[in-house]
Amino acid sequence: MIYLQLLWVFVKIGVLGFGGGYAMLSLIQHEVVDHYAWMTTTDFADMVAISQMTPGPISINLATYVGYTTAGFGGSLLASFALCLPSIIMVYFILKLFMSKKNNALMTNTLKGLKPAIAGLIFAAGLSMMNTQNFVDFGRGQYNISVIICVLAFVASYFFKANPILLIVLSGVVGFFAY
Amino acid sequence: MKIAFELFFSFFKIGAFTLGGGYAMLSMVEKAVVDQKKWIPNDEFWDMIAVVQSLPGVFAVNTALYVGHRVAGTKGAFAAMLGAIIPSITIILLLATVFREYRDQPVVERIFKGIRPCVVALILAPSLRMIKSAKVTWKTAIIPIATVFLIWWLKISPAYVILAAIAGSLIYALIIRHKTRGAGGNPPNPLSRGSDPASRVPKSRRQKEKEAKP
């Protein structure tokens, strides 16, 4: 049963995951954290951090981790394979259909229209993680160190394009001394 | 069979050493596939990437599948795909066992308490950057706002939101196609580079230099 659920969830994510790794976060979070409760919101945040610091696609990393924690080694392979399955099918069917320039123009324009929605999707994933599980000292004590970390990391990332790995390491150091 | 092994090892190297996701990987793939092995001509490679970009799924996996299929058929597609994902799966399996062992250690817990708010920032920042690059105006701002409202506030599955967004933008794209036809001109071809400034394909510096040459 758990295998079927993993297969269904990750095939769905593979089919609907337009716009790269971050866009998939929202889909994965909804299924894995909200719907099936295979992971807690802190687990999810930790895995995103670990994925950022290790090579390889973030969605494959998450699929492997979720599969492993819910159904062991077999589950990890199944979840990763399920995520790739729609892509494998597409190589054979869609490729021939969309390699023609006419259809490709249509698809590129569709994706361009989809982009603002995908941006909203990613933003929603971030907002959903803004809770007291991930911001442990929010509303408690004098200093909201978690809020300060979040704001500084956002400024560094958005305005200065700081290296995400560096930011994660720095905030880990801050957490070590602050908590 | 030899070429399937070569594909596997090329993508294995790329999968094992590229940090920073799909687009960071692209220049490594270009170097391996176009420059070193000369499996695919430069132009064809970038045309292919333009198509792969607009497909759903894991970008690295899609790229591996299409390059592998182009170079060595079904065997090549599977060899390249496995090469791209095996490093990730191995690393995460190793880390998952270690992480479960040590995560309740107070030191680890303290470190991750600091990291989690940073992760939230690292997700919010690219979404805002994307809104900027998608040239969202005051009129079209309703789209990302509605998306956030539906998913975050009403907890509607992102799957439905994506399906609705696809339907909407497909209709929009069909209208554009119809209009350009009606005007008697050829439809704009997004594959010809330079015609689409909003194209998300990041060109490598080498690529740009090649283009600059007459």
Instruction: Write down the Rg of chain B.
Output: 21 Å
Tell me the series of helices and strands of chain A, N- to C-terminal: HHHHHHH
Largest sheet of chain B: none
Can you tell me the number of structural domains of chain B?
A: 2
Terminal CA distance of chain B: 39 Å
Shape of chain A: globular
Secondary structural class of chain B: mainly alpha
Number of domains of chain A: 2
Helix-strand pattern of chain B: HHHHHHHH
Strand content of chain B: under 5%
**Spans of chain A of 5+ residues with little confidence (pLDDT < 50)?**
none
**End-to-end span of chain A in angstroms?**
41 Å
Characteristics:
heterodimer, A: 179 residues, mainly alpha, 2 domains, globular, B: 214 residues
Give a description of the structure.
The complex is a heterodimer of chains A (179) and B (214). Chain A is mostly helical and 179 residues long. Chain A folds into two domains: 2-131, no CATH class; 135-179, no CATH class. Chain A has helices at 2-16, 21-35, 41-53, 58-98, 101-128, 145-158, 164-178. In chain A, α3 packs across α4 (58-98) and α6 (145-158) runs antiparallel to α7. Chain A is globular and about 60 Å long. Chain B is mainly alpha-helical and 214 residues long. Chain B has two domains: 1-102, no CATH class; 136-186, no CATH class. Chain B has helices at 2-17, 21-36, 42-53, 59-102, 106-133, 142-153, 158-182, 205-212. In chain B, α1 (2-17) packs antiparallel against α2 (21-36). The longest helix of chain B has 44 residues, at 59-102. Chain B is flat and about 55 Å long. The relative contact order of chain B is 0.09. The model of chain B is unreliable at 189-201 (pLDDT under 50). Classes of the chains: A mainly alpha (179), B mainly alpha (214). Chains A and B meet through α1, α2, α3, α4 and α5 of A and α1, α2, α3, α4 and α5 of B.
Offer a quick outline of the entry.
The complex is a heterodimer of chains A (179) and B (214). Chain A has 2 domains: 2-131, no CATH class; 135-179, no CATH class. In chain A, 79% of the residues lie in helices and 0% in strands.
